[in-house]
Amino acid sequence: MRYAYFAQARRLVIEVHGSVTVYDTLDHQIGGFSQQQSVGGTLSFSSQYGLIDVASLPVISRDGMAVPAAAPLPSSFQHNNPPDAGSPDIFAAIERLAGLHTKGLLTDAEYSSKKAELLARL
User: Fold this and answer.
1) What's the whole-model pTM score?
2) d(CA 66, CA 73)
3) What CA–CA distance (Å, rounded) separates 101 from 111?
4) N or C: which end of the chain has fewer CB within 10 A?
5) How does pLDDT run across 14-25, given as a tens digit for each residue?
6) Category of 51 on φ-ψ map: left (φ > 0), alpha (ψ -120 to 50) or beta
């Protein structure tokens, strides 16, 4: 596994077994990386929001091919509430969810549903 972080472009590029994926780092200010060495190991990084799983970042492209943007959230998840001072707590909750998902304690559907619900609060 190899990776490169481009702070000004807000991009993270990761190569695994010859396959290259480009991620949007959003507003994260990445300060360091860590890699879990288990089967299907994960890569995470530290930012001003704490420890973040790379899998939670939007994918821009895979092997040079653009990845379509995610579909908008269903209206049942959308709220017109402005961001509040608790936003960092939402990111912490998403991190905890990602940890539970990684450990196999949440299904893909449970994780995606709860993550979308939390993101809708921003």
Assistant:
1) 0.54
2) 21
3) 6
4) N
5) 888 899 999 998
6) beta
Q: Which of 98, 89, 88 is nearest to 36 (CA)?
A: 98
What residue type is assigned to position 34 of the chain? S
pLDDT in tens, 21-64: 999 988 888 887 777 655 555 778 888 888 888 888 888 899 98
List Cα–Cα distances, 25 to 7, 20, 76, in angstroms.
8, 16, 27
Find the DSSP H helices in 3-84.
Answer: none
Amino acid at 119: L
- Based on its alpha-carbon atoms, the radius of gyration of the chain, rounded to whole angstroms, reads 15
Nearest to 45 by CA among 79, 91, 78: 91
